[in-house]
């Protein structure tokens, strides 16, 4: 099991601004890939502001639980196999550190629901201050664009993020709504909840 404090700044973009930033940083791209996020729901996950997903990326699978922690997010993750991914989705008997944390929080593994997936085509650009990522997201019938900057130092990272977005006349006051909430909102809209 691995844990890290997630410190990130993120903002939604228009398709045109996404393309402008991509063009500007074209020669600094470190990596580009598709990742598929299978999100799980449960009333207590929402109530506690937890996020649970399985991310599939480059034929590898990672089970991740994010929880509020000191104004940021504590990200707990473990690598799992493709078979473990299927077992988790189908509620087959299994045990790991994340299931234990869920149970400690009265969240039953057997009651988790996987209602939707979100596909992200991500472009990573490694900068001295952190990882800048341009995301093109597809979920349900929606497509959106996002700029994310994950850093180790919140003050230096915040200042650099403001410098990055300034040429595009973007304003940042706080992080945009995260992907799982946007996808769940759209799911509810489509199902009249």
The total of helices stands at 6
Low-confidence stretches: none
Quaternary state reads: single chain
* Gross geometry: globular
Largest sheet: 8 strands, antiparallel, barrel
Pattern of helices and strands: EHEHEEEHHEEEHH
Number of strands: 8
CA gyration radius, whole angstroms: 17 Å
Kindly, what is the distance between the CA atoms of the first and last residues, rounded to a whole number of angstroms?
Answer: 36 Å
Strand composition percent? 35-45%
Computed structural class = alpha+beta
Global mean pLDDT:
95
Strand line-up of the largest beta sheet: 1-5-4-3-2-6-7-8
Structure description:
This protein is of the alpha+beta class. The protein has helices spanning 15-24, 43-47, 82-89, 97-104, 154-165, 179-190, and strands spanning 2-13, 31-41, 51-57, 60-69, 72-80, 113-127, 130-139, 142-151. Strands 1-5-4-3-2-6-7-8 form an 8-stranded antiparallel β-barrel, surrounded by 4 helices. It is globular, with a radius of gyration of 17 Å.
Main attributes of the structure:
193 residues, 6 helices, alpha+beta, 8-stranded antiparallel β-barrel, 28% helix
Produce a short descriptive summary:
The protein is of the alpha+beta class. 28% of the residues lie in helices and 44% in strands.
Itemize the secondary structure elements and their pairings:
Elements: E1 2-13, H1 15-24, E2 31-41, H2 43-47, E3 51-57, E4 60-69, E5 72-80, H3 82-89, H4 97-104, E6 113-127, E7 130-139, E8 142-151, H5 154-165, H6 179-190
């Amino acid at each position: 099991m691995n844990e890290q404090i997630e410190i990130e700044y993120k903002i939604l973009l228009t398709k045109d601004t996404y393309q402008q930033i991509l063009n500007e940083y074209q020669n600094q791209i470190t990596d580009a890939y598709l990742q598929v996020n299978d999100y799980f729901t449960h009333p207590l996950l929402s109530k506690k502001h937890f996020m649970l997903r399985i991310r599939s990326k480059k034929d590898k699978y990672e089970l991740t639980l994010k929880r509020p922690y000191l104004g940021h997010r504590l990200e707990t993750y473990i690598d799992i196999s493709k078979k473990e991914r299927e077992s988790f989705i189908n509620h087959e008997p299994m045990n790991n550190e994340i299931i234990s944390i869920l149970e400690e929080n009265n969240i039953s593994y057997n009651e988790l629901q996987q209602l939707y997936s979100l596909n992200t085509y991500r472009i990573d650009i490694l900068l001295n201050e952190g990882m800048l990522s341009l995301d093109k997201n597809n979920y349900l019938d929606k497509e959106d664009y996002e700029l994310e900057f994950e850093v180790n130092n919140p003050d230096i990272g915040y200042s650099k993020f403001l410098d990055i977005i300034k040429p595009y006349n973007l304003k940042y006051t706080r992080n945009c709504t995260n992907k799982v909430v946007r996808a769940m909102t759209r799911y509810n809209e489509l199902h009249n909840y």
